[in-house]
Structure formats: structure tokens, C-alpha cells
Specification:
single chain, 648 residues, alpha/beta, Rossmann fold, two-stranded antiparallel sheet, globular, disordered C terminus, binds guanosine-5'-triphosphate, CP-type G domain-containing protein, P-loop_NTPase, GTP-bd_ortho_bundle_sf
């Protein structure tokens, strides 16, 4: 559902009319902000925006602009007044002509192919060359011209190649911060989110760093690695090594926890310890011994993971050592080794700095785009950290929904929420969503056009009903409000999905382990187990189970078995299925269903796809009506509302 256009947004025509005939205070403000200035270098007059703006306004990150703002900004950058500048040389860079929703698997393949062909054209703007003879005004003009050229180039790429771009940073002031950070830094650490490392990586930024000075170093720091399993890190490590990318895994979150643990330990050491003298029953002692043995076995395996240089999550000390190794030799005695931290908003730059500094020197927030100016923090007498404001580099985007899910676009300002919520509903298995939230999601049956996977709206309605979020008036489930919660959970990693490296396994297979019941918090694990038991008793789980058969291992090759063994402590049984309860149960159920129909999930999907003329990847197994009735049993405890609009 597309929401009505905001009353605040104006087209170029409307804006010109408002400016001309006036529309209350707003237009007065607008008129007052355009002032005539004299260029002292040339003596010419020009029109520009009033600079008496608060500094936060100037530094505000701009990733999307209305038609008039785009026009005015372009005109200001070009340094020409509106009559002198011909419209033909102004390009509207951002348009909403593209479908903001999701792509089918086939469309996505076409788009990805096109994106790969044009990858080299995704550049970051370069700061023009300058020397001691360049005046401030001249440099300002040169920078604006270079920036305008860069924007034209990207606009052309979008127009001629018909590619959707990320709403990349359009504020020159923000790029100026990046230029300064790069110029000052000996090492530029590009921080990316582990859930989608390539989406957050700007390859051209690394080129630019080397252009500024070949002696500078680049490092790709994959933060939030705590969200990945060992197997996932291993697959990414193989890919990144193959591409010869200097990378390291890190987790500011784990680093913070380790720091707190050390602090607690040192505090408790100061307190007197109380010795436990009570005698324990034999059964309890046996249980403890068994647990200890299990722990030891687990430790041995974790040890193996830890020793794997390529996949290990660095501690703060290790990260510091790696950075110090890159310190240039023979620098001036007064030179401070400077490490610049750059990256998209919300990838964890401030958290990483806090972990390095060992204290909360930089504020951390889950709202993207909080850091506005670059900040310098003295790590030691010789080492300086430089925190650059988060900025969105130009990149190809498949959809805006993807950007929301990646935490690039702020959720609170979101108007179109169905795309991103559908991505969440597609990526996180339905039973997992139901267990996490304690909800029941009703999907449309196949015969009525459903595909077994909930749509974003189906998920949101279920969530809204459960939380009692209702719209005023008609009293329908407030999907828009629900979207904010669900999407924030996704961005925060509560609903976890990691992207696989290119040309490897598909997303479902890559994330299979994440939906293992053993990964759930204790309370949710019990809820899920109960839900599964209920479904098994009334025999209605069959179709539901098939949703998860996509996350169940098929007979594997030697390499993936070795990889999996490292993760699954109990190993695989002789059927090729794993013995963890969550997967085992689903595997068994899935098998029964498929045997009954004499078709495997894949074959059935392929058949449905053929019948419907769609891509097999877009087809999932369905839930039948019988299932709704069945699984409603034992669900009475969930809050229900008379306004349910989607119950069959
Ligand atoms: N799970 C996990 N979450 C993290 C990690 N590092 C940061 N976060 C979370 O990610 C969010 C953003 O962290 P920040 O450090 O503020 O990110 P930033 O890159 O400085 O953001 P801007 O100031 O907007 O540029 C916060 O909610 C953090 O708690 C990590 O290693 N693991």
C-alpha cells in the first residue's frame, strides 16, 4: 500500500507557485533565505542561500531531496543564478519513478548482472588538488564544481543504465568531513555491518585513499560479527581472501562485554569470597561432571575456531596490535599515528571507538546518522582516532526496502513500510517469527494466490493485533505502527538474517543454523517447543513444517559437512539430518508430507512455478485452510481482536 504523499513534500511547480504567491510563514522564510552575495575573486554578484543557519542544519545528512531542493542545491553548487543557468544542464538526480517494492528472483538476477557490469562507475567524490597559493574561495569553488560533476556522473548512470542507486549522501559538507579524515589518517578503517559486508563496502573509497597517498593503508573491519555463526564467518573469509581484500572480524558488542566482565572481576576480587561448604547429592555431582565434560568438549571446539586466524573475532588488544603494525616508519617526531574510522551510519563506528578507548567517549545510538562532525579521540600519546560522520556511499540498490532493512534509512521517517516488512517476512521463517513474538500469522492459501510465506502486511497485522495496536476510526490492526517495531527488531538483529557471499549458497541455506532452536533465548525456546508440540498433536503442522524444510540440510558434500560439524556439536545422524530438536522435528514432518504427495519440496515448487509461469525461487510451500483451524487450537491464550480482518 502506498501512503498518501506528505503534505510537506512539494513538487517544483508547487514550490514555485508558493514562492510567487506566498503561502504563510514558510514562503516568507524561504524568500528571506535567498541572499545576494559578491564573489570577491571575480567581483560578480550571485544568489545563494543565507548562511546564517544553525551549524547542524548545514551538516545535516541529505540522502533524498524534493525536486525544488534538488534544483536549488544544484544551482548553488554551480554558483550561478537561476536565470543564467540553463535547465538543460540541471539533472534531477533522485526520482521516485522506480518501483520501491521488491523484485522477483528473475528480475533480481537481471539487475545484479547489470550492476556488476557498472560497478566500476560507483565512485566517491574526489577533493580537487590545491596548494598553498589556492585561496579559500577558489578551493570552495573548485570543490563545488568537482562535486557537481560527480553528481552529474551518477545521475547519468542512473538514467542511461536504468539502475536504482542508494540514496547516497548529497551534502557536500559531509563529504568534506570524509576528505579531511582521509587526509589526516595513516590507516583508513572502513567499518561494515557483518550482516551484509559488501553492501556497506565502498571499493572506490579504498582506491581514493591510495590516490591521496599510496603509503596510507585500508582495512575492512567487519563489525557485529557476533551476529554470525562460525560457518558464516568461514564462508565470508573464503570469499574475501579470494578477492584479496584486507579484512578482519570484530564485535564492538563483545568487546564491550569483555571489558565489563574484567571490571566486574576486578571489583569482586576486592570483596571477600564466601566458600560453599554444603555437601551435594551424588546425582547432582554426576550431573555437574557431565556438564563439565560437555563444556570441555565445547571449549575444545571453540578453541579450534579461535585459532582460525581468518575467522576469529578480534579482541580489542588484537585490533590495536593490527592497527599499530600499520604505523608508518620514519615519520616526524611530532606526528601522531592517526586511524580514521569511516562507514555507513549505524555500522558501529562509535561503538568501535568506545571499545578501543575503553570508555563511552562517543555516544552510541540506534538511529542512523547521529554523528555529524568528525571527532578526534586520543587513544594514547601517539595514537589518534578520527571518527567520521556516517555517510551513505553511492551503491546500487535493488530496492529501498533493502536499504531500510540494512539500517541505512531511518525507520521513524519511513512511509512505505510494506516492502521492508515483506523482506523480513520472507527472510525469517514463519514459525520463528511466531515463536519470537508469540503470534499466529495467517497466510493466504495457495489456491487463493498465496505462496506460503507471509506477506509483510500479514506479519504486521498479526503483530499489531497481538500488541493491541489499532487504527483510530475503523479499528483495524495498525500495520504502520507494527512495522516500526518489527523493522527495528530486524535492524537490531533480534530477527537475524545474514547475507551470503556472492555466488555461494542461497540466503535460506546460509542462515539455516540461525533458526536452530538452540539459538533462541530460553523463554522463546520453550514457547516455540510448545507451539511445535501442539502442531504435531493435531497433525496440522505438516504444511507449516514445509516452510522450514527450506532451512533443512540436503545431503551434503564433504566440505560443508566438515564445516557444519564444527558448528553442530552433536553432529549429523545417518540420514544426513541434524539431531537438534528444532530441525529434527521439522525434517521428520517435512518428510511425511512430501512422501504423502510423492514429491519433494523442490520438485513441487518447480511444478507450481511452471504452472504459474513464475520463478521457482518465488514459490514456497503453502499452508492449507485445515491448518488454520488446527493450529488455532491451543492458541486461545493469545490476545485476539474482533476486528481481525484476515481470518479465513
Ligand atoms: N550486535 C552488535 N551490535 C552493535 C555492535 N556495534 C554496534 N552495535 C549497535 O549498532 C548500533 C549503532 O552503533 P553506533 O556505534 O552508534 O554506530 P555509528 O556507526 O557510530 O552510527 P552513526 O553515528 O549514525 O554514524 C547501536 O545500536 C549499537 O548498539 C556489535 O558489534 N554487535
Amino acid at each position: 500500500m502506498v501512503l498518501a504523499k506528505s503534505k510537506k513534500s512539494v513538487g517544483l511547480g508547487n514550490s514555485l507557485m508558493n514562492d510567487r504567491f506566498g503561502k504563510g510563514k514558510g514562503s516568507d522564510r524561504k524568500r528571506a533565505s535567498a541572499v545576494t552575495r559578491i564573489d570577491h575573486a571575480t567581483g560578480q554578484e550571485y544568489i545563494t542561500n543565507d548562511r546564517q543557519e544553525a551549524s547542524w542544519v548545514k551538516m545535516r545528512s541529505i540522502t533524498e531531496q524534493g525536486a525544488l531542493d534538488e534544483f536549488l542545491a544544484t544551482a548553488e553548487l554551480a554558483g550561478t543564478d537561476f536565470t543564467a543557468e540553463k535547465m538543460s544542464s540541471v539533472k534531477i538526480i533522485h526520482t521516485d519513478q522506480k518501483n520501491p517494492y521488491l523484485l522477483s528472483a528473475a528480475e533480481e538476477r537481471v539487475i545484479v548482472g547489470k550492476q556488476n557490469q557498472n560497478k566500476g562507475k560507483l565512485t566517491v567524490p574526489r577533493r580537487p588538488k590545491w596548494d598553498s597559493t589556492t585561496t579559500r574561495e577558489q578551493l570552495d569553488r573548485l570543490e563545488k564544481e568537482a562535486f557537481l560533476d560527480w553528481r552529474r556522473g551518477l545521475a547519468e548512470l542512473e538514467e542511461t543504465k536504468d539502475l536504482l542507486m542508494t540514496p547516497f549522501e548529497r551534502n557536500l559538507e559531509v563529504w568534506r568531513q570524509l576528505w579531511r579524515v582521509i587526509e589526516r589518517s595513516d590507516v583508513v578503517v572502513q567499518i561494515v555491518d557483518a550482516r551484509n559486508p559488501l553492501m556497506f563496502r565502498s571499493e572506490d573509497l579504498e582506491n581514493y585513499v591510495k590516490e591521496v597517498d599510496p603509503k596510507k593503508h585500508n582495512l575492512l573491519l567487519i563489525n557485529k560479527a557476533d551476529m554470525m555463526t562460525y560457518r558464516q564467518r568461514k564462508m565470508w573469509a573464503d570469499y574475501l581472501k579470494g578477492q584479496k581484500i584486507a579484512y578482519r572480524f570484530f564485535s564492538a558488542h563483545l568487546a564491550k562485554e569483555a571489558l565489563e566482565a574484567v571490571e566486574e572481576e576486578s571489583e569482586s576480587e576486592e570483596e571477600p569470597t564466601v566458600a560453599s561448604s554444603s555437601k551435594k547429592p551424588v546425582a547432582e555431582v554426576k550431573e555437574e561432571t557431565r556438564e563439565e565434560e560437555e563444556e570441555e568438549a565445547e571449549e575444545a571446539e571453540t578453541q579450534e575456531e579461535q585459532e582460525d586466524e581468518d575467522t576469529r573475532i578480534l579482541t580489542v588488544d588484537e585490533l590495536e596490535d593490527i592497527l599499530l603494525e600499520l604505523e608508518p616508519a620514519n615519520t616526524d617526531p611530532g606526528h601522531k599515528f592517526t586511524v580514521g574510522l569511516v562507514g555507513y551510519p549505524n555500522v558501529g563506528k562509535s561503538s568501535t571507538i568506545n571499545a578501543l578507548v575503553g570508555a563511552n567517549k562517543v555516544s552510541v545510538s540506534s538511529t542512523p546518522g547521529k554523528t555529524k562532525h568528525f571527532q578526534t579521540i586520543h587513544l594514547s600519546e601517539k595514537v589518534l582516532l578520527c571518527d567520521c560522520p556516517g555517510l551513505v556511499f553511492p551503491n546500487f540498490a535493488n530496492t529501498k526496502a533493502e536499504l531500510v532493512c540494512n539500517g541505512v534509512l531511518p525507520i521513524d521517517q519511513l512511509r512505505e513500510y510494506t516492502g521492508p516488512s515483506t523482506l523480513v517476512a520472507t527472510r525469517i521463517p514463519k514459525p520463528f517469527l511466531e515463536a519470537i513474538y508469540g503470534i499466529q500469522i495467517y497466510t493466504r492459501p495457495l489456491e487463493e494466490g498465496g505462496n506460503g510465506i507471509p506477506t509483510g502486511e500479514e506479519l504486521l497485522r498479526a503483530y499489531a493485533r497481538h500488541r493491541g495496536f489499532m487504527t483510530q476510526g475503523l479499528g483495524q490492526p495498525d500495520a504502520s505502527r507494527a512495522a516500526r517495531y518489527v523493522l527495528k527488531d530486524y535492524v537490531a538483529g533480534k530477527l537475524l538474517y545474514c547475507n551470503p557471499p556472492p555466488d555461494s549458497v542461497d540466503g535460506a541455506e546460509f542462515n539455516r543454523e540461525l533458526y536452530d532452536i538452540a539459538h533462541l533465548p530460553e523463554k522463546r525456546r520453550a514457547a516455540l517447543q510448545q507451539a511445535l508440540d501442539e502442531m504435531t498433536i493435531d497433525g496440522s503442522a505438516a504444511d507449516d513444517a514445509s516452510v522450514l524444510t527450506d532451512f533443512i540440510p540436503l545431503p551434503q558434500g564433504q566440505k560443508s559437512q566438515t564445516l557444519d560439524k564444527a558448528f553442530f556439536k552433536s553432529g549429523a545422524n545417518n540420514t544426513g539430518n541434524f539431531t537438534r530438536p528444532f530441525q529434527y522435528k521439522y525434517t521428520e514432518q517435512g518428510k511425511q508430507v512430501m512422501e504423502g504427495k510423492n514429491l519433494s519440496g523442490r520438485k513441487l515448487r518447480a511444478m507450481i512455478a511452471l504452472e504459474k509461469g513464475i520463478d521457482p525461487k518465488d514459490v514456497q510451500m503453502t499452508t492449507g485452510k485445515k491448518h488454520y483451524k488446527g493450529s488455532m487450537k491451543g492458541r486461545g491464550k493469545h490476545r485476539r481482536n474482533n476486528a481481525d480482518d484476515d481470518e479465513p
